[in-house]
Structure formats: structure tokens, C-alpha cells
Amino acid sequence: MRSNADIIDMFLSAKFAVIALACLVHCVLGQDTDNSTTSTTTTTTTPSPPVTPNTTTSAPDTTTSAPPTGKPAEKNVTLVNKCIKLEGIITLHINYEGVKEDINLATVHPTVDPAACHVGEDEILAVKFANSELTWTFSNKSNKYFLKELKLQAPLKINNTYEEKVFLLSDPESFIGKVDVTKGYKCNTRNVHRFNETDVTIELLEFKVHAFTEDGKEPKEYSECENDVVSDIVPIAVGCALAGLVVIVLIAYIVGRRRARQKGYQSV
Question: In Å, how far are 245, 253, 255, 262, 266 from 259, measured between CA atoms?
């Protein structure tokens, strides 16, 4: 009787023999396949046809890029004389009797006469650009200044003829309200104001002005427009709602713990 160890040794020896035989057969068959493939492969060289030069001439590109359209670039401009300092992104939108034009003041190289400042008790800032003029007039009552008048004079080409047109801002006193002379006025929010009852408007963004100042000095404090003032009501309401939610969760947790304990005592 053979032992179990002898039987296992015989089984392993037979296994290794089978693996070795399989490897030998694979090598022989692979070599035969390679030889047969090599012997039956022939190379045939055929003359390539003559290359015909390409005589087609592409047509020149006559497409021109379209000019940029849309609103003008929003650039900040600073306008100052001895009495008034004014700055911001100021854009005029003219849509009047077939004339359509958008003018950003910073892009038309505006000029200001620093000496032209007082007209009686009022102060003016006359801005000239492209044969046009935008005149700001501020008045002071009880040490509070306000916009008294904003006038736009511009030559417009109507029916192939240039006509000098004058536009006055509607309700100028509500433009900045009444501001203390020691303060400036600012409004970062975009605002659009209309001239007369036409489609001629002035658009302001990041606007600042200080009238009745000394040599255009920067004021120490600004009055802000209503749109810039952040209301405290919304943050307070959100905080109260979150606090109430936390209290409700805590109460639900405590009640749940007590009920769980009571069920545990009852089971005992």
C-alpha cells in the first residue's frame, strides 16, 4: 500500500509533466505558424501613378468682421473744478427722432473749465465733449445742496441736417435729494434718469458727487442712496428663524429621550 504522501508526489509530478508538454506543443505550433506565414508572404511592387500638381487657386477671403455693437464700454470718469467733484460711470443714451447713440463720457475725452464754477449763488460743472455740453447746476439752501438743473446740449443730425437740441432732466431735485455741504453723495447702484419726456436718458453707476467743496477735496463722509443701504430686517428674520428651528429640534430630542426611558422602565 502506498502512503498518502507518495500519492500526492505522483499527482504533482504528473501535473508538472502535463504543463511542460503543453508549453512544448505551444512553442512548436507557434514556430510552424510563423514559418508558414513567412513562406507564403510575397511582396509586390507596383509603380505609383504620376502626381498631378494641384493647380486650383483658392479665392481670396473678402469677408470683413462686423463692427462691434451693443452698449459702449463702461469706464469711470472724474470731473472736477474748484467747486464740484463728480465721478462715476456716466453714459448718455440718445434715442430721438431717428438718432440713436450711446455715449460713455470717459471715452469721448470730456473737458472741464476749472475756473468756471459760480453762477450767482449756484455752482456749475460744465462738461464739454464732441461739440456737446452737459451742465450740472447745484444749489445750496440751509447748508444742504441739491441738483437744481442738468442740461444736455447736443447737435443731432435729423433729416440730413444738424440741429442744436437742448434736453433738461426731469425732476432734478430728486436726483440726489438734499445733502449736507460737509458730506458727499454716492450711489453704487445703477440708476437711469430721463430728460424731459423723451427717450434721452443718463445712466449712472458707482456715482459720487460733492458740491460746494473746497478745490475738489474728498469729503470725509458720504450720504448713500436708498438702493445702497442694506436693510437689517432680512438678517434679523433669518436669525430668528434659525434660532426657533434649533429650539424645536432640542425640544423634540428631549421628549424623545424621555419617552425612550419610560418604555425601558415599563419593560423592566
Answer: 21, 10, 6, 5, 11
Under DSSP, the state recorded for 141 is: E
Report pTM.
Answer: 0.61
Cell numbers linked to 45? 511592387
Distance CA 178, CA 249 (A): 50
Burial group, residue 159, by CB count within 10 angstroms (0-12, 13-18, 19+):
exposed
Q: What is the pLDDT of residue 16?
A: 52
Architecture of domain 77-228: Beta Barrel (2.40)
Mean pLDDT of 68-94: 86
131: left (phi over 0), alpha (psi -120 to 50) or beta: left
Q: Are 215 and 177 in contact (CB under 8 A)?
A: no
Collapsing DSSP states into helix, strand and coil, what is residue 111? strand
Structural domain boundaries in the chain: 77-228
